[in-house]
């Protein structure tokens, strides 16, 4: 049936055309009151009622399609015709209807629904019900007729009613807000649209997103609005943003406002809750990078206020909360992502010059092809020479070995060419050199000064200080350390963050100072003397070594790494009286890390050159004499300490004579801890060790695994060891009996141990996850 002919929009009755023009263009502010005035009682047993939209009561999901019975009666809208079209004379057709953006259509366009029903032709929607018959209908009135939709129950009927009403109104708002001639009228319509979305009983993501997209499209097509219009629109749509992220075009509008009017009251009053919601609930900035850009611009706008970074600091504190633990786990990763993207953007021109690929800004502006790009901003790279250059941003250089070339690159600001001067080595043709290639050419150049524009330098300083603020929160520091671990930062303020990592006693924090994988430098390597980021003669490096030595990293593997890669810096700092480095050198001698006799003598000379070194070397010599006496053949082969014995008791006992023959030691039910491992590794013949029901933990296991290679039987029943320590036992190939009863062993670790310990035959894993 054609809903637009014979009295429809395009029919022969001129008054209907006039009606449609008024219907399409009239403001929608009074829709509810007009509908209330049109409410009438039907004839006979049929009752017609209007369902009011309310923020309370029943909730419905927005329908996009569904099966329903359809009846169409085309007639003049008179009282007599309504009697003639009673329920006894109606014919119903089943249809699968789709609620499209502009019309109601059927999957089977036949019969009543041969043509779609435009929302613009629907004059009124009402609910119908009968007292004596279980029929639940929605009445759609159009010029010259009526469409009845019959649902299976009252809930489905109401769902269809509200969904149709929503589709009809949202269609009208799209028409009204398409290129409006008067912005005062458009602002009223925006407010009405927001109110409609807030009061709708429908629950669907699109209920709030559709109005936001309509408004963002309107703003994108009208970029010449006055600042006051900007603020009025932002205030009008603020209620919709309380529980929804702004769409990309709206983010661009917000960014523009933050850049042009950073001191506007809208920034604090409207944007603050929006940004707080983004930081608390956003899961992936990669899906909507403009959310991240808007957050960056908001933070920079806060920095433009009179309080400057104090305002930013208060905002960061509000995101963390007043307690010691932030209740929102997504806040820190999102803040770090925002800071890293902002810092990256300061060097974006350098990085994108590597392959002439479009920058993020150019991608946002629609540039996709290389030939569409504007030439990159020319920058001047200067090799720092004495005297000390003015303060500048320091970029760490790659330590990738390369042929010894010498390079001087000058990228002038007044042209797009680069003059490259090389001495020795092959040339690269006529291609323009880029920053990364320049950095990789000469490992002899340790720093490179890059003069940034004033605005970029302010951005860099702002977000670097935010990372500094984040490192001051104890609960955020472990996650922050893992997030920043593999990233070489180009700003001196980040040194404070690394210092906080080095001062934190928690292993999950300071372990992130080391490299994440072989061949990848970490903070420990970057800040070592001679490293690309070291500017303090190794003070930060020494504090890193100190905290690592105080944890489970006091092992041969760590000392071997230092001896192979950082022995020179360690000896230099020890020569300057650094106590941590003196202790490192003494441990290298004690554990026989250094095999070369000349190097051993050099270390001894270094230790004897300072008072603290001489004292610690004399203590080492005393320990070595005691060790030789302890390991001298003789003494018992079995030894059991009394219950409640301590680490000090064990040390006192082992210092009283020779235990070179000791093969079986029982410390069961004593109070020893991982600290006694320092004494246990001095027993070269030890084959059986019983630690049942002690406080011996992971750190002690790591030490035993490196020094007691001949251990065959180990009892760890009811000890606090975890997977972290038990995995270290995989290097003890002589183990044939292992008791891990009532420990925190997991099934994966158990399978790993079985695979790596071929001699392991007797294993007890009762009361563990692997049982």
Mind explaining what this structure looks like?
The chain has 771 residues and is an alpha/beta fold. The chain has 5 domains: 60-164, PH-domain like (Roll); 177-350; 495-547, no CATH class; 554-633, no CATH class; 634-764, Alpha-Beta Horseshoe (Leucine-rich repeat, LRR (right-handed beta-alpha superhelix)). Helices cover 44% and strands 11% of the residues. The chain contains 31 helices and 19 strands. The strands form 4 sheets. It has an 8-stranded antiparallel sheet with strand order 1-6-7-8-2-3-4-5, covered by helices on one side. A 6-stranded parallel sheet has the order 14-15-16-17-18-19, with no helix packed on it. A hairpin with a 3-residue loop joins strand 3 and strand 4. It is elongated and about 120 Å long. 33% of the residues are buried. Mean pLDDT is 77; it is low at 5-55 and 366-448. Residues 384-393 have a biased composition (Pro residues). Pfam families: PH_21. Keywords: Cytoplasm, Leucine-rich repeat, Nucleus, Repeat. InterPro entries: CMIP (IPR052813), LRR_dom_sf (IPR032675), PH_CMIP (IPR056429). It is found in: Cytoplasm; Nucleus.
């Amino acid at each position: 049936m054609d809903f637009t002919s014979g009295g429809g929009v395009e029919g022969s009755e001129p008054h209907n055309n006039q009606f449609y023009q008024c219907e399409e263009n009239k403001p929608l502010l009074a829709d509810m009151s007009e509908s209330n005035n049109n409410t009438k009682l039907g004839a006979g047993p049929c009752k017609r009622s209007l369902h009011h939209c309310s923020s309370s009561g029943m909730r419905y999901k927005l329908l996009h399609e569904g099966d329903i019975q359809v009846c169409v009666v085309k007639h003049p809208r008179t009282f007599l015709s309504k009697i003639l079209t009673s329920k006894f004379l109606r014919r119903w057709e089943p249809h699968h209807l789709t609620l499209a953006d502009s019309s109601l259509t059927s999957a089977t366009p036949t019969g009543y629904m041969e043509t779609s029903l435009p929302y613009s032709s629907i004059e009124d929607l009402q609910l119908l019900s009968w007292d004596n018959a279980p029929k639940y209908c929605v009445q759609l009135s159009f010029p010259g007729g009526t469409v009845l939709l019959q649902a299976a129950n009252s809930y489905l009927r109401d769902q269809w009613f509200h969904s149709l009403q929503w589709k009809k109104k949202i269609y009208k708002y799209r028409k009204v807000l398409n290129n409006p001639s008067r912005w005062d009228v458009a602002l009223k319509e925006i407010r009405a649209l927001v109110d409609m979305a807030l009061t709708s009983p429908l629950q669907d993501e699109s209920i709030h997103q559709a109005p936001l997209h309509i408004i963002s499209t309107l703003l994108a097509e009208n970029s010449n609005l006055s600042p006051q219009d900007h603020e009025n629109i932002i205030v009008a749509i603020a209620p919709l943003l309380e529980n929804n992220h702004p769409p990309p075009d709206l983010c661009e509008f917000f960014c523009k406002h933050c850049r042009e009017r950073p001191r506007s009251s809208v920034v604090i009053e409207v944007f603050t809750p929006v940004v707080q919601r983004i930081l608390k609930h956003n899961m992936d900035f990669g899906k909507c990078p403009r959310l991240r850009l808007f957050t960056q611009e908001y933070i920079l706008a806060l920095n433009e206020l009179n309080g400057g970074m104090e305002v930013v600091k208060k905002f960061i504190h509000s995101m963390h909360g007043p307690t010691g633990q932030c209740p929102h786990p997504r806040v820190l990763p999102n803040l770090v992502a925002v800071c890293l993207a902002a810092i990256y953007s300061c060097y974006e021109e350098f990085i994108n010059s590597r392959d002439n690929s479009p920058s993020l800004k150019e991608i946002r502006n629609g540039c996709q092809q290389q030939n569409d790009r504007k030439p990159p901003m020319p920058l001047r790279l200067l090799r720092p020479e004495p005297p000390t250059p003015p303060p500048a941003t320091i970029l760490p250089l790659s330590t990738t070995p390369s042929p010894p070339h010498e390079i001087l690159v000058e990228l002038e600001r007044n042209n797009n060419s680069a003059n490259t001067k090389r001495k020795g080595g092959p040339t690269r043709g006529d291609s323009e050199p880029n920053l990364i290639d320049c950095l990789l050419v000469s490992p002899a150049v340790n720093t490179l000064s890059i003069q940034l524009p004033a605005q970029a330098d302010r951005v860099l300083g702002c977000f670097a200080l935010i990372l500094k603020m984040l490192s001051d929160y104890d609960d955020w520091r472990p996650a922050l350390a893992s997030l920043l671990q593999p990233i070489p930062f180009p700003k001196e303020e980040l040194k404070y963050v690394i210092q906080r990592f080095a001062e934190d006693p928690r292993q999950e924090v300071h372990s992130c100072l080391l490299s994440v994988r072989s061949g990848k430098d970490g903070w420990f390597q970057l800040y070592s003397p001679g490293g690309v980021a070291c500017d303090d003669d190794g003070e930060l490096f020494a504090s890193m070594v100190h905290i690592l030595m105080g944890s489970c990293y006091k092992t041969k593997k760590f000392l071997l790494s230092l001896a192979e890669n950082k022995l020179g810096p360690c000896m230099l700092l020890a020569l300057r009286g650094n106590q941590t480095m003196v202790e490192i050198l003494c441990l290298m001698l004690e554990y026989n890390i250094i095999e070369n006799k000349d190097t051993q003598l050099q270390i001894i000379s270094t230790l004897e050159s300072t008072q603290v070194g001489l004292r610690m070397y004399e203590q080492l010599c005393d320990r070595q004499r005691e060790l030789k006496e302890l390991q001298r053949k003789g003494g018992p082969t079995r030894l059991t300490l009394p219950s409640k014995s301590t680490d000090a008791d064990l040390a006192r006992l082992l210092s009283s004579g020779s235990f070179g023959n000791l093969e079986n030691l029982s410390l069961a039910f004593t109070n020893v801890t991982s600290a006694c491992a320092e004494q246990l590794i001095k027993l070269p013949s030890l084959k059986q060790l019983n630690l049942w029901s002690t406080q011996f933990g992971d750190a002690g296991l790591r030490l035993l695994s490196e020094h007691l290679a001949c251990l065959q039987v180990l009892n760890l029943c009811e000890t606090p060891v975890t997977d972290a320590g038990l995995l270290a036992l995989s290097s003890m190939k002589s183990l044939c009996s292992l008791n891990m009863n009532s420990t925190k062993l997991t099934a994966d670790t158990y399978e790993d141990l079985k695979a790596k310990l071929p001699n392991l035959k007797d294993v007890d894993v009762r009361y563990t996850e692997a049982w």
